[in-house]
TrEMBL record, chain A:
Belongs to the binding-protein-dependent transport system permease family. Gene3D superfamilies: MetI-like. It comes from Mesorhizobium waimense. Pfam families: BPD_transp_1. It comes from the Bacteria. PANTHER family: BLL4140 PROTEIN. It is found in: Cell membrane. It is a multi-pass membrane protein. GO terms for biological process: transmembrane transport. This is Sugar ABC transporter permease. The chain crosses the membrane at residues 24-50, 88-108, 120-140, 171-192, 228-251, 278-301. Keywords: Cell membrane, Membrane, Transmembrane, Transmembrane helix, Transport. Residues 83-297 form the ABC transmembrane type-1 domain. GO terms for cellular component: plasma membrane.
Automatic annotation (TrEMBL), chain B:
The keyword Oxidoreductase does not apply. GO terms for molecular function: maltose binding. It comes from Mesorhizobium waimense. It holds the Pfam family SBP_bac_8. GO terms for biological process: maltodextrin transmembrane transport; maltose transport. Residues 1-21 form the signal peptide. It comes from the Bacteria. The keyword Signal applies. This is Sugar ABC transporter substrate-binding protein.
Length: 308, 413
């Protein structure tokens, strides 16, 4: 609000009283948004922070224990293992999503025959909820009544039906495949808008200068998509670090608890072990990690000097 | 789902009754009770001035939901609670002490002992039996006949289970000898531990203070399951079944033998009338038998003002009429003295399940969820590893250690 007032002040110089009043009007305009943020974000966040300082069981009395929950987290090896797995998953799935979404975006960016059809079909899985998509895939992946294993067996590709969810590697990559199927379309749309915002004159000029397609991609497309990439990357990383539904519904954290994510562990502590205070403390830690990561990403993809 | 909707509709109709009611108490039940609970509430409301308003809550949500409601002061007056949670609820100071009233009941001594044991915390009673489910072994008579076995005779020890399963499995095609949910803690505490108990072992000490996993009985039972998995008598999906196929696998008619529960009798009779099956006890290694005593305890929220209504309702549930309604719609009777009478017009296979219930056992611990039911807890992880993995010793000692540390860290009050 102060920026609005400050930037508009020189245009029509006024007395301080007027600027002050305009600030109040501005405040009035944003009040609904502020109220929403306060009620649905600031207050719950404050309560989470408050709960994290307590021994707060689901039932019964809670008591103030200061930072004891946070000290316990330091020794909670299963949380750190879950966090390590979450990191690995985020890395793999983000690379996989971009590896699929970028070519798709390049493919559908310019109008051609059936572009509308391709855009729609690539985007379609993105409108399904994660929980419903997980349920669908847990059926597809079922060894006895699903699609993949029985189909591979019937086609003679495997000697017997392979239970894809029984060991870590196939289970993990099945989830990656499912998430890419589900999310790539959304990332594709974001990247497409970035691609379309690049003026075609630049590409044409580069072409006249004799730049090949790869050089044009590296020297023009990528740098000009910096902001779009930052947006897509932050959305993807934040979404992956908060992953829960697919691991809960399809794998239950298995096989042998090797796919427990950070949020899954918070859920377990809060609603299986009934330790709401400890779950709140874990959530605060995860929040801090997420904020830090997003800041690092924004810094890495900041506007470099001399580029508009 | 259909029963859920019917249940909700019933609950709604109960609420809409004209208000001659002196008083209305609110009761919650988990979805497992959506078959019998609306019936008994309906019968009660028709015959009494005081009324019960029933809410049916999904199984997985009833605990968090109750916790939130209790914190917000909107908890129901009473709750039909999975009996394994009664120690934890009592320890949290959430429940009304009903010791004096319970002991004044003339039939107190014949109430299901496993329920009363889990309903008792530090010598005081906080929960009384409401619904009951025991674990049994069921076999497919048609497949037994095809395999050249006596269709009327179920296995009575471990060697017979394996031999019978092998014969049925030899029929080939989609037919498999044996089924169990290999990645489900709740299913296996219900159907696998009775094999251990019947052979003289246990997984927890009587007061729940010590994990006692490493026993020859547990290892013997593991060997039985491992051997059947190795011989390919068990469908591949068992390894990752988190319980969703616990009943459905046998109901499809391709499984020779499976450990299951009394609930399966009602479910098979009504939903799969074509499956011809027998019911017997879960045997020990060399005979004998045991059962898990499952079901719900009836608990009262501390400080409720509707205690009189709640007691009136429980009195009704304990009457012969109440016990018969429960039995007819899927729960075993919880009063031993009139169980036979309540079951007399029903499928005779219920008698076996009722007998199993009378001697059923329930592990007593305030951290049952953490130890056993959690899909990521030590018990679930252990059963999956010992049935399908390579390192049985490592899995047992790991689970023993984790369970003991969870027990030791549990809140002591």
């Amino acid at each position: 609000m102060t920026t609005i007032a400050a930037t508009s002040a020189p245009a029509r110089p006024r007395k301080l009283v007027g600027a002050g009043r305009r600030q109040w009007v501005g405040l009035l305009y944003v009040a609904p948004a502020v109220a929403l943020v306060v009620v649905f974000f600031i207050i719950p966040l404050g309560m989470t922070a408050w709960m994290s300082l307590h021994n707060w069981p689901l039932m019964g009395e809670h008591s103030f224990i200061g930072l004891a929950n946070y000290w316990a987290i330091l020794r909670d090896t299963r949380f750190w293992n879950a966090l390590r797995f979450t990191g690995w998953y985020t890395l793999v799935v983000t690379i996989a999503i971009f590896a699929v979404a970028f070519p798709l975006a390049l493919f559908i960016e310019r109008p051609r025959r059936l572009t509308g059809f391709y855009r729609t079909s690539f985007f379609m899985p993105a409108v399904i909820g994660f929980a419903s998509a997980s349920l669908l895939w847990s059926w597809l992946l079922n060894v006895d009544s699903g699609l993949f294993s029985p189909a591979a067996f019937d086609l003679g590709l495997t000697e017997k039906k392979v239970n894809l969810l029984a060991t870590f590697q196939p289970a993990f990559w099945s989830i990656i495949a499912m998430v890419v199927w589900k999310v790539a379309g959304f990332t594709m749309i974001i990247l497409m808008t970035g691609l379309q915002s690049i003026p075609s004159e630049l590409q044409e000029a580069a072409m006249i200068d004799g730049a090949g397609p790869f050089a044009r991609f590296r020297a023009i497309t990528l740098p000009l998509m910096r902001r779009t990439l930052a947006l897509a990357l932050i959305l993807s990383v934040a979404g992956s670090i908060l992953a829960f539904d697919q691991f809960y519904i399809i794998l239950r954290g298995g096989p042998r608890n090797q796919t427990l994510t950070a949020v899954y562990w918070i859920f377990n502590q809060s609603f299986v072990s009934f330790k709401l205070g400890y779950g709140a403390a874990l959530s605060m830690i995860l929040l801090a990690i997420l904020v830090a990561l997003s800041m690092v990403q924004l810094w890495l993809l900041r506007k470099p000097e001399g580029v508009d | 789902m259909k029963t859920m909707i019917a249940g909700l509709a019933l609950a709604a109709s109960i609420f809409a009754l004209p208000a001659f009611a002196a008083d209305t108490a609110n009761i919650w039940v988990r979805a497992d009770g959506s078959n019998f609970m609306p019936r008994i509430v309906d019968a009660f409301n028709k015959a009494h001035e005081n009324q019960i308003k029933l809410d049916i809550i999904p199984n997985a949500e009833i605990i968090p939901k109750y916790g939130a409601a209790a914190a917000g002061g909107t908890a129901p007056d009473a709750l039909s609670l999975d009996l394994i949670y009664t120690p934890a609820f009592s320890a949290a100071g959430q429940l009304e002490d009903i010791t004096d009233w319970a002991k004044s009941l003339p039939y107190f001594a014949s109430l299901s002992p496993a329920h009363v044991k889990t309903g008792t915390y530090k010598g005081r009673i906080y929960g009384l039996p409401f619904s009951a489910d025991s674990s049994v072994l069921i076999w497919n008579k048609k497949l037994f006949k095809q395999a050249g076995l006596d269709p009327e005779k179920g296995p009575t020890n471990w060697a017979e289970i394996e031999a019978d399963a092998e014969k049925v499995n030899a029929l080939g095609g989609d037919i498999k000898g044996f089924y169990f949910s290999g990645n489900c803690g709740g299913c296996n505490i219900f159907t696998f531990t009775p094999l251990i108990w019947a052979s003289g072992g246990d997984i927890l000490s009587g007061d729940g203070s010590k994990a006692t996993l490493d026993s020859p009985q547990l290892r013997g039972a593991i060997d039985l399951y491992r051997s059947m998995v190795k011989k390919d008598l068990v469908p591949a999906g068992a390894q990752t079944d988190t319980g969703s196929n616990f009943f459905a696998a046998f109901a499809a008619g391709n499984i020779g033998i499976t450990p299951s529960g009394a609930f399966a009798i009602g479910a098979l009779n009504t939903q799969y009338p074509n499956v011809d099956y027998g019911v017997t006890f879960l045997p020990g290694k060399d005979g004998g038998w045991s059962s898990f005593a499952g079901g719900d305890n009836f608990v009262v929220t501390k400080g409720t003002k509707k205690l009189a209504v709640v007691k009136e309702f429980l009195d009704f549930a304990y009457s012969l009429e109440g016990q018969t309604i429960l039995a007819k719609y899927g729960s075993l009777p919880v009063r031993g003295d009139i169980a036979k009478e309540a079951l007399k017009d029903l499928d005779p296979r219920y008698q076996i399940a009722a007998e199993a219930m009378a001697k059923g056992r329930t592990p007593y611990t305030v951290v049952f969820n953490d130890l056993i039911n959690s899909a990521n807890g030590p018990w679930t992880q252990m059963v999956n590893e010992v049935f399908f993995g390579d390192d049985v010793d490592g899995a047992i000692s790991n689970a023993q250690e984790t369970m003991q540390s969870i027990i030791d860290q549990a809140p002591q009050k």
